[in-house]
Specification:
The chain is an alpha+beta fold. The protein has two domains: 60 residues, Rossmann fold, CATH 3.40.50.2300; 103 residues, LytTr DNA-binding domain (OB fold (Dihydrolipoamide Acetyltransferase, E2P)), CATH 2.40.50.1020. The protein has five helices and twelve strands.
């Protein structure tokens, strides 16, 4: 790069308050320690291996780009809910009941509409009426899913194999 090297550019960006994810790729391994000074997300040594680049990009996406919460209509008004607080969602008539770590919350969104708003990687249908946060999946048995909280959700026999695969994929990153 002419004018500035990557490390100098990163320092300028940080000085301006920019928190953009930075991944350095270089053959100079001594520069890796300097990457901490500018809060680099990753430092990859040349030649870059595909799996290492993939991991770095996924890390940046999950850390800096992926939404971590949602704003939903409830009986008390719009509520801001972190995805990590949602244990599961259950279809309830024309709305949806969210079961949160601090108790249930009814939202005035159709189950299918809510499902479309939640991150597909983190939430999976275990039954046509239940959408589970895979962070809380404890045990999967033939017709049920036990959450880490002890709650038991039904698992459709048609969704069992797909749910097992989704959980393995989710846990392996």
């Amino acid at each position: 790069m002419e004018g500035l090297d990557g490390m100098e550019l990163a320092a300028v960006l940080r000085g301006l308050g920019d928190s953009t994810a930075i991944v350095f790729i270089s053959s100079n391994r001594e520069m890796a320690l300097r990457g901490y000074e500018v809060c680099a997300a990753r430092y990859l040594a040349k030649p870059v291996e595909g799996p290492r680049l993939r991991e770095a990009l996924l890390y940046c996406y999950r850390t800096f780009c992926e939404k971590k919460e949602i704003l939903l209509p409830t009986g008390k008004g719009q509520r801001r809910i972190p995805f990590s607080e949602i244990l599961y969602a259950e279809a309830m008539g024309r709305g949806t009941r969210l079961v949160l770590r601090d108790g249930p919350e009814d939202v005035s969104l159709k189950f299918s509409d809510l499902s479309a708003l939640l991150p597909e990687r983190q939430f999976a249908l275990c039954h046509r009426s239940y959408l589970v946060n895979l962070d809380y999946a404890g045990y999967i048995r033939s017709r049920e899913l036990e959450l880490t909280t002890g709650e038991i959700l039904p698992v459709s026999k048609y969704r069992l194999d797909g749910l097992r695969k989704r959980l393995v994929d989710y846990l392996s990153g």
